[in-house]
Specification:
heterotrimer; A mainly alpha (57); B mainly alpha (233); C mainly alpha (249); A: mainly alpha; rod-shaped; B: mainly alpha
């Protein structure tokens, strides 16, 4: 590791807040853009199944 | 046979027929050419009041004020470019006809520009007076707006053709057109600024002419496709 | 004689859904691994920039996001062209699937660019930076295309409209970039110089070369997930889709 300690990694020579906010926000948005279609797909499947059940009754 | 009946219509005659028909329709309703003009004068008045009657600041920012207001005026008027023709079905006839749709589109945009963009060009002296721009650069300002409103009309017509079938396409039309307007806005405002400052005009002027030529040649292709899908919708 | 079977198969949503499901774990896993590797490498195992210090580490998100955002636009426009020329349903779905991912990546590039700007330029946003301004306009283009697609309530016309708009945007992007570039070179304040590329050290460059493929893989994974949603949405009346839905839920 380039940094001497975890504290040094965290503070990044005083620029820690910029770097960590940039990484944190970006990675959360990326994670969300993977999870939200997954949830939408599940919901879509469920709707299709419910609709098909109602049709067959 | 249908085709032979159409043979004696040359492309030129179709072009002029559509052009003058549209002009007649526009002139029957006075608002179609007065409203954009009225709009631009009101917005410039609001800008002037917003600047706190600071004539110096107004003169400095006049190129961008003129361009943004002209852009908005053209954009708001474009909503009506294909709307009535779409509603009464004549757009469908135009597409189905054996005549070149390219020329029909060109004629329609030209007629529309003549009643919306051109009055703005004619109002340049008034705009210059309101913003405190020296009347010496009037020819350059007018030329800039002449080329600029043309570019804005042709590019904006793409968005108009795509959204004409939507009930409330006005805002969407603006959203679609704004990013495409960036080059015209940059070179247009730069041209006005150069003219007011007395700098060499050729770089920005040649860019404006280039953008206009590209817009005139290329945008009808997208507009034709847009109109076809709108009619199918 | 080239084998075109794969191309025709692409036209079948059922086959596509099965293939997507087969490939997704691999793409997702690989994306996760490359991103993890490159970002930890970039965050902790590279020396800081001698001028900017540790802030430069934002580069490992900013540059890949910007590169992939632009590439995604062209991929979307190619999908649009295929949709217009061959009237392929799958291409329409691809267009709608790529657009939100591209918008997200563009937003990330803008966001990290602004944060990076604060300590290096002293302000979050500088209009004179041609790359950031072009990115902002790309963001508007993406949003416009998504809005246009959705305004038609998922009808075929909306798909065509979005495809045409994406092609119009393709013609415009180079013009927009060049004009913003020209404009910024005119208006650049003399005190700020950022067009001059500092030669980046090899040690700093290596994680970037891993992060860019990582972002490509992430983009691919997100697009594949969106594709599944689109396939389910368009195939909701097909018997095979209903069968599948009954089994899965």
């Amino acid at each position: 590791m380039y940094f001497d300690s975890i504290q040094a990694l965290w503070s990044m020579g005083g620029h820690g807040s910029y770097v960590w906010i940039a990484y944190g926000v970006s990675l959360s948005i990326m994670l969300w853009s993977l999870i939200s279609p997954l949830k939408a797909y599940r919901k879509q499947l469920k709707n299709i199944a419910i609709y098909a059940e109602n049709e067959s009754d | 046979m249908l085709v032979s009946a159409n043979e004696n219509f040359s492309s030129y005659r179709v072009f002029t027929a559509i052009f003058f028909r549209d002009l007649t329709v526009y002139f029957r309703y006075r608002g179609s050419w007065i409203n954009p003009l009225f709009f631009i004068l009101v917005v410039i008045t609001l800008f002037s009041l917003g600047f706190g009657a600071d004539n110096q600041a107004l003169r400095v920012y006049s190129p961008s004020i003129i361009w943004v207001t002209a852009l908005l005026a053209v954009l708001l008027s474009l909503d009506s470019l294909f709307k009535t023709d779409f509603d009464d079905g004549s757009l469908e006839q135009l597409i189905l006809s054996s005549q070149s749709l390219y020329l029909s589109v060109l004629a329609k945009i030209l007629a529309h520009w003549l009643v919306t963009g051109f009055p703005i060009v004619l109002a340049t002296p008034l705009i210059s007076l309101m913003l405190g721009v020296s009347l010496e650069v009037l020819p350059e300002l007018s030329l800039g707006l002449l080329l600029g409103t043309g570019i804005l009309s042709f590019i904006g017509a793409i968005g108009a053709s795509l959204t004409v079938s939507l009930a409330s396409g006005g805002l969407l039309l603006s959203l679609l057109s704004m990013p495409l307007y960036v080059p015209a806005m940059i070179f247009g405002a730069q041209y006005l600024q150069d003219a007011i400052a007395g700098w060499p005009l050729m770089p920005s002027l040649s860019m404006l002419i280039g953008l206009l030529l590209a817009a005139v040649v290329l945008s009808p292709l997208a507009i034709m496709a847009g109109l076809k899908l709108s009619v199918e919708a | 004689m080239p084998n075109w079977q794969w191309f025709h198969r692409l036209g079948s949503p059922k086959w596509l859904l099965i293939t997507l499901d087969r490939w997704l774990p691999w793409v997702l896993g690989l994306a996760f691994l490359t991103l993890l590797l490159s970002l930890i490498w970039g965050l902790a195992f590279t020396p800081p920039d001698y001028k900017q210090g540790d802030v430069f580490r934002i580069i490992y998100i900013h540059v890949p996001a910007a590169v992939v955002a632009l590439a995604a636009y062209y991929a979307m426009a190619i999908a649009g062209a295929i949709a217009i020329i061959w009237r392929m349903k799958v291409a329409d779905m691809a267009l709608r699937s790529i657009a939100p991912v591209g918008a997200v990546l563009t937003f990330i590039a803008l966001f990290t660019g602004a944060i990076w700007g604060k300590p290096t330029w002293g302000t979050y946003w500088i209009w004179q930076d041609a790359r950031l301004t072009s990115m902002l306009i790309l963001f508007f283009l993406y949003l416009g295309i998504i809005a246009l697609y959705d305004a038609f309530n998922g009808s075929a016309s909306g798909q065509r409209a979005a495809a045409i708009m994406s092609l119009v945007g393709t013609v415009n992007i180079p013009i927009i970039y060049k004009s913003v570039d020209w404009w910024s070179s005119l208006h650049q304040p003399a005190s700020i110089k950022f067009t001059e590329e500092s030669t980046i050290a090899l040690e700093m460059f290596q994680p970037l070369m891993v992060a860019i493929p990582g972002f490509y893989l992430f983009c691919l994974a997100a697009v594949m997930l969106n594709m599944k949603v689109q396939i389910a949405r368009h195939g909701r009346n097909n018997s095979w889709m209903i069968e599948r839905a009954k089994i899965d839920s």
